[in-house]
Amino acid sequence: MSLRQAIVGQFKKPRGYFGSIAGWIMANRRSNRERNHWTVDLLNVRSGDRVIEIGCGPGIALETCLLRANRGQVVGLDHSQTMLDQARARNAKASQEGRLDLRLGSLDDLPATIGSFDKAYSVNVVQFFPDQVAAFRKIHSLLKSKSVVATTYMPRTKNPSRADAFNVAEEVKQNMEIAGFTNIRIEELPMGPVPAVCIIGEHP
Ligand SMILES: C[S@@+](CC[C@H](N)C(=O)[O-])C[C@H]1O[C@@H](n2cnc3c(N)ncnc32)[C@H](O)[C@@H]1O
Q1: Full-model pTM
Q2: CB-side exposure of 165: number of CA atoms within 13 Å?
Q3: Which residue, among 67, 5, 57, has the nearest Cα to 29 in the 3D structure?
Q4: Where are the alpha helices (DSSP H) in 29-180?
Q5: Residue 42 has what DSSP assignment?
């Protein structure tokens, strides 16, 4: 296995030395930072919002979210301890103040006692959900009425095309609909080699 393969193989659940490197790449790659900030912008996070990020990784989007929800609360969920450690270090002040709640675990296992949210989002995570409808049903159960869900995706296949991004976006849109979301739209962020797409829906 090449060094590149060893690192790329980490993105689903980063751990150990190569997992730390994968986290560093996510936190420092300009295009990834851009996708993360764009997603938070699309969510229109407000000062008092309670927000959850599924698969927060090294905590890039959490940083932006905490600036916007400056009187609210932000939860970062990830099933990788390596990623939670990086997210905590990056957002140490908010974590100490209790404005950021970092949770180790999988979306499936998140207890209902966590309470309900105004916004829920993920970036580069939807492709890892083994059952997207079940995942969006779970997210639906975490959201308040009149709240918003957003998920951003960019194809990582060999020689990806814009059509690949939109095919996945359409599939995600359908799965969100089955899970109970409405007014779902697809946004596009032009970047190379393919655009990122964000699928945004409302909890009725
Ligand atoms: C490709 S990384 C993206 C990280 C971050 N969102 C970003 O864009 O920089 C995917 C992240 O999602 C996490 N993850 C994948 N599936 C998950 C699940 N079912 N529950 C919680 N975390 C998950 C992984 O551990 C990893 O940190």
Answers
A1: 0.97
A2: 25
A3: 57
A4: 30-43, 60-68, 81-90, 92-97, 132-142, 162-178
A5: H
Quick one: which atom of ligand 1 is closest to the CA of 135?
19
Mutate to test the pocket of ligand 1, among 125, 131, 137 (most ligand atoms within 8 A of CB): 125
pLDDT values of the chain reduced to their tens digit, one per residue, 204 residues:
788 787 777 899 999 999 999 999 999 999 999 999 999 999 999 999 999 999 999 999 999 999 999 999 999 999 999 999 999 999 999 999 999 999 999 999 999 999 999 999 999 999 999 999 999 999 999 999 999 999 999 998 888 999 999 999 999 999 999 999 999 999 999 998 899 999 999 999
Distance 125 CA to ligand 1 centre (A): 5
